Amino acid sequence: MTLTLSGKTIGPDAPALLIAEVSANHDRDLDQALALVDIAADAGWDCLKLQTYNADSLTIRSNHPSMAIDPIWGKENLYELYQSAGMPMEFHEPLYARAKARGLLPFTSIYDPRDLEFIENLGNEIYKIASFEMTYDDLLIAVASTGKPLILSTGMAILSEIEHALNVLEQHNSGPVILLHCCSSYPAPLDQINLLAMKTLEQKFGRMVGFSDHTIGSRAPLAAAAMGAVAIEKHYTNDPARKGPDHRFSATPEVMKDIAGGVKDIHIARGSGIKQTTRAEEGNKAVGRRSAFAIRDLAAGHIITPDDFRFVRPGAGIPPNDSTAPIGRRIKLGVKAGDPISYDDLLF
Question: Most CB atoms within 10 A, among 64, 173, 285, 335?
Fold first, then answer.
């Protein structure tokens, strides 16, 4: 279960792939968007992720009460929100170019099958399906047709919905699928993100699993990395105080750097999973473990009794978990008081 794209390996034996989510924080300003590319690269992240949509991709003009939204988003209805938040299509090419020049892998979330040809022409290597779109079968089928890998976010989903989406993708010969556990709340409270669900997804579906984070700060994504997330996605900004729907819950450049450094350290600390004596422990093991030491001179041929030795530090002789080994055995050549008793000192 590994995947390599543009030299970046995604899998359980690699550090979590870090996906910097621009979302609406481009503010429909190309210079602002390009500055965000540099922030992601400077912070040590792996990927730049965009969102390809406009208001008509997601909804229609309507005065129906269901279209009204919380004023915290800065608009009164869904159409107005997406009209202001959608990234101009002409931004894609320069952002992909800047990302590649800075060593980032650029890709995008697709929301409308009609945009597939446009995105394919950008040389997109992997697709993202947002949590809100994972039940949109027509979109899944369109992306599956490319045969390329895709990342499927699972915010708000129950297991049967995820199973359905995966079945649709498999039936249409999709590329490899990475699942992202997600809490689709902005920001997401720590007591609602349920990171253990990553393990549930992994066990249920046998896929690589990561985490799409909407919490404030670095604790949740670092915890996810420690739990084995193969990818971490996070919204980010250059200034949380900027106007716009997503800046308020997005990570600062400092948080992005903290996550990147932490993920590298966590990968090193996670290790291989093999329980064994490490190189760092070998010296202390030799000094700190107990072993059999003679407490009196033991002549050659002497039959050892419990009164002839003690188990003390260091671990230079017979270990205490084989405490009966010396008892009743004859000494070969003699052992001085204060010297360890080893197996080689005994006649068997």
Answer: 335
The architecture of the domain spanning 279-347 is: Alpha-Beta Complex (3.90)
- Where in the chain are the domains? 10-270, 279-347
Reported as a pLDDT band with limits 50, 70 and 90, residue 322 is very high
Is there a shared CATH topology between the 10-270 domain and the 279-347 domain?
Answer: no
Q: Assess if CATH 2.60.120.330 describes domain 10-270.
A: no
Share of the chain above pLDDT 90, in %: 99
> The pTM is what?
0.93
Looking at every residue in the chain, the average pLDDT score rounds to: 97
Quickly state the pLDDT bin for 1 (edges 50, 70, 90): confident
**Chain centroid to CA 91:** 28
SS3 readout for the chain: CCEEECCEEECCCCCCEEEEECCCCCCCCHHHHHHHHHHHHHCCCCEEEEEECCHHHHCCCCCCHHHECCHHHCCCEHHHHHHHHCCCHHHHHHHHHHHHHCCCEEEEEECCHHHHHHHHCCCCCCEEECHHHCCCHHHHHHHHCCCCCEEEECCCCCHHHHHHHHHHHHHCCCCCEEEEEECCCCCCCHHHCCCCHHHHHHHHHCCCEEEEECCCCCHHHHHHHHCCCCEEEEEECCCCCCCCCCHHHCECHHHHHHHHHHHHHHHHHHCCCCCCCCHHHHHHHHHHCCEEEECCCECCCCECCHHHEEEECCCCCCCHHHCCCCCCCEECCCECCCCECCHHHEEC
Give the span between the Cα atoms of 253 and 240, in whole angstroms.
10
Distance of CA 321 to the CA centre of its chain: 40
pLDDT at 127 over 90: yes
